[in-house]
Amino acid sequence: MKITETERRELEDIYSFFFNDEKVQKMKDIPMHRGSNTFNHSFLVAKVAIKRGLRHRRVNLKSILIASILHDYYLYDWRRDRNKLKRHGKNHPYIAAKNAKADFDITEEVQKIIQAHMWPINFREFPRTKEARIVNLADDHVALKEALTSKRYKKRRDEKITKNIQKLF
Ligand SMILES: [Fe+2]
Ligand SMILES: [Fe+2]
Predict the structure, then answer these.
(1) What's the CA-to-centroid distance between 2 and ligand 2, angstroms?
(2) pTM of this prediction exceeds 0.90
(3) What separation in Å is there between the alpha carbon of 7 and the centre of ligand 1?
(4) How far does the centroid of ligand 2 lie from the alpha carbon of residue 143, in Å?
(5) pLDDT for 63-119, tens place per residue?
């Protein structure tokens, strides 16, 4: 999919809006696989998803972008919260979608993409649209990469990611 310079700039602006938002920055305190955090993870997913979205014809890149950034916007540490631990895999997409709606008034399409990002773990939420499938797979891709990084390389990885996620393009 070809996009104009204006569209490109619009996506970059949305990206920096969320990147610099105080509430979104709270995701830095929420740990993820292998010492990563949900902030780095989500912005990486956004970059991967946009890159893949651009290979398709006619997809809503804005929805892909916003859903990727907010797909793990659940804002609790499931390893510390015993009540949440058990059903985190299935529940956190709903919590993230709810928080995102409350804080950023996202569209229904974006909510649905967020809710379907854990399919097939949450089997009921099948990613029905191209946009939802792109985000679902981008999330798997980044999560796998994070899981495969050994602790020895963690520091170097974090430095690389921090540099890499400054900008969308
Ligand atoms: Fe997630
Ligand atoms: Fe994720």
Answers:
(1) 27
(2) yes
(3) 28
(4) 7
(5) 999 999 999 999 998 777 777 777 888 999 999 999 999 999 999 999 999 999 999
| 98 CA → ligand 1 middle, Å | 14
CATH number for the region 5-164 comes to 1.10.3210
| Ligand number with the minimum distance to the CA of 40 | 2
Could you tell me the distance, in angstroms and rounded to a whole number, from the CA of residue 1 to the centre of ligand 1?
27
Question: 130 CA distance to ligand 1 centroid (A)?
Answer: 18
Ligand positioned closest to the Cα atom of 121: 1
Quick check: 48 pLDDT over 90?
Answer: yes
Instruction: State residue 158's pLDDT score.
Output: 83
Concatenate the DSSP letters of all residues of the chain into one string.
----HHHHHHHHHHHHHHHT-HHHHGGGGSB-GGG-BHHHHHHHHHHHHHHHHTTSSS--HHHHHHHHHHTTTT-S-TTT-HHHHTTHHHHHHHHHHHHHHHHH---HHHHHHHHTTTTTTSTT----SHHHHHHHHHHHHHHHHHHHS-GGGHHHHHHHHHHHTT---
